[in-house]
Amino acid sequence: MKLTRKELLVGGAAGAALGAAGIYELVDKLADSPPGHFGEGRDPEQHLLDGMRIEKQEGVEVVVPVRHHQLVTARVVAPPDQLRDARADLAAVLTKLDADYPGTPEGLAITVAWGLPYFQTYVADAAEVHLPFDRRAKKRALIDAIRFPSDPDDTLLEDNDAAFLFRSDNEEHIRTAATEIFDRMKGVLEPTSIRKGFAGQMDGGKGFPKEMATAAGVPGADLIPDGSELFLGFTSTQRNTLGPPRIVNFETLGLVDLGPRSYFHGGTHMHLSHIFEDLEAWYLNQDFRDRVNTAFRPRLPVRPGAQTVPQPPSRASSESDVRRDYHRFGAIGHSSSLQPASRLQQDVRGSDGTLYRKGTAIPQRADFNTLDNPFFWSADPKRDRMGEDPAAGLHFVVFNPTSDDFHRNRLAMDGVLPGGEKLQFAPRAAGQGFNSILRTTHRQNFLVPPRRHRSFPLVELT
Ligand code: HEM
After folding, report:
1. Whose CA is nearest to atom 14 of ligand 1?
2. Which element (helix H / strand E) includes 448?
3. Taking a C-beta distance cutoff of 8 angstroms, is the pair 244, 289 a contact?
4. Which of 140, 161, 315, 423 could form a disulfide with 415, with the two C-beta atoms 3.0–4.6 Å apart?
5. Which pTM does this prediction carry?
């Protein structure tokens, strides 16, 4: 059943697109009622969800991801002298939504993030004083995104003012909230893109990724293993590979100077990118052994057909492990190449007194698969190169303490070790981890304020 563009993507006005589901309404038809979660209340942090369920998959603790995701990027269209009122209006609608839904997967989680253009254009003086500073990198904690060695030359570095991330097991909650926010922000914040997607919840059967890709007629969909969490067949939310709750807060690891008022205490950094995935190249050009070498580490012993591969802190790869793999096999694995940057290299006592052991993961990934091409809706379809047919991809969302910390991770994924040594690969070479079957189309870094300052941050100090 090949879907038409009309059935998949939505053109026309942003308003209509915000209220539309397109193919994604299929997710709820395919699945049983969402699993029960528990827990109430709202954290001061915007990027944390309450009641995330931990389950054992193939003997490994896995965080069960939220089913539906939507991300709306936007630009400010109101004149600066109207932003104080806008700040109160947006805060009011967000507070109302916090009351309407519990902060759990079955309720709704909204994360509001702000781009460098917003800080530079509307609150430059206050930003000069209060934007967090990365002590290790000796630069701002929020800097412009860059093209990485494996990125194609035409990867778009975006300049949105804001991004709204919506996560829920109930798609209706997301559509209602997104419509309420942008109705209230008419003439103030204008959507520039809408991005939608889902994650498999590993609850048996074929699993959303395979069923959605099959329903959309995506090439290679039939090759996706049944029940897998992601299109590429491996679980990517095991507990050991995701940073513990507050580790990415600006203040936790001591990486960041928060300035005179610690205005952004409880905030964090978010990177957003869109990545196309070539499923046929992944499954037809590589057998299971090759895929394990690429996703994890060359020659890592793994049970044939496994989807969840243990990555405990005690076995995190070091720079010399990655260098040795490179010289022995001419290849690096995705998660092993990242671990010298994504894991703590020594025990760290956090600002709240928590002891984080060596090998603990830092980044909190919130990425989700998509059939968007590359977006569900775009205000500038030509610039965003909106395509006709559904395409397998990932909206990659990750929280790190700073932009530079994310850049160190992403460079490590290309074989640029945190110490600066470059393991030589041609861009997207077969040995360079996943990159050979990925193509990044868009990128931007954002700052995620704490909940109390999530609406038009610093405007009140300007
Ligand atoms: C389509 C693209 C991608 C897919 C399918 C993917 C999939 C995976 C998988 C299967 C793992 C192993 C996780 C586990 O063992 O739980 C992983 C780990 C990870 N990935 Fe990716 N990934 C992708 C892109 C990226 C990108 C662009 C980054 C950016 C830096 C990234 C950062 C990470 C990190 C930090 C880890 C954890 C490493 C660790 O500390 O063990 N991934 N990813």
Report:
1. 236
2. strand 438-448
3. no
4. 423
5. 0.94
